[in-house]
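User: Can you predict the 3D structure of Ferredoxin? Sequence below.
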Amino acid sequence: MSSKVYFTDMHVGMGDSLLDKFERLITKAGIDQIDFQDKFVAVKLHFGEFGNMAFLRQQYAKVLCDHIKAKGGKPFLTDCNTLYVGYRNNALNHLDAAYMNGYNPLATGVHTIIADGLRGTDEREIPVEGGEYVKTAKIGAAIAEADVIISLTHFKGHVGAGFGGAIKNIGMGAGSKKGKMEMHSSGTPMINTGDCIGCSMCVKNCANDGVHVIDGKAVIDEDKCLGCGYCIAYCPKGAIATKWDEAKPVMNRKIAEYTKATLAGKEAFHINMLINVSPDCDCEGGNDVAVIPDVGMFASFDPIAIDQACVDAANKQPVIAGSAADKCACHDHGHDHVHGHDVFKIMHPDTDWEAGLIHGEKLGIGTREYELIDVK
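Assistant: Sure. Here are the predicted structure tokens for Ferredoxin:
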């Protein structure tokens, strides 16, 4: 059976607004079928790396949270810390970035919580029913303990996943540092000896005797390291990093399995914003121009269907002249850069976005078959 995906475009007339259309969309899509009364509601989104300007405006989150509060819910905005060494690598800097980008209580009317805590180690282990790659997902505690999950996603390109949609927002985004390590890598982390100061913080926080300081530099013991990534979280200099060595189709399947665990036993609802479609993730410290024209807003109870609908809608659009997609298409990847293209494969030809949706469908998260319903 197909799932219902609701859609509205970005056109408004006199006396109307995009925020009004946003609320009409989520209402028509059935968000009020969820019993929000006295429930903790995790609104999972991406606050945007400091310096990036492609992330969603906070006004959409405010309308969503106001709607949930009116139904008796207790919403909060949330994301987990990043695995890479960037501005959102710990909860304090992460909150700084969120607040500067508008995701603060004064602007949104709700609290912002970094779900996996100060260093990215506050997690809950959740079994992955039917998991082929992951048996137990490591999910940020605040997300794992919420009663309801609402994903609010900026749909865009991604260098590893092909695109970043609802599945990536929920799966990769809800993973703690250890969880992100598991999705990104099949092995052990690596040491950048030039940055290492030999402080032994990694040694003190390794439960498996997997790292030692030798001659003033940290060294990974490949025989004992379990690849948990805790040393990454505790290194004060960012000298320890993942090898980013997981095959991209496998990474997408792991993301689907993390999505399965995150949503297990919870009511959930998903909103994708197919606007300002940047070539790369909002994790980047900057962003390039959009690669296609703005399409609109999508809402569904099915995270697989909504991502498939967004891919299909994006690929019906012409690429914007001079954008990254246009430049990549001109390098002859075998695509017509105006019609019949896969815009995400054009930009990131070595990715396999379809692997995650196929695997998610297999896991029972949702279906790629959908009925698109227009909302005025």
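Residues 3-185+245-374 form a domain with the Rossmann fold fold (CATH 3.40.50.11440). The longest helix spans residues 248-263.
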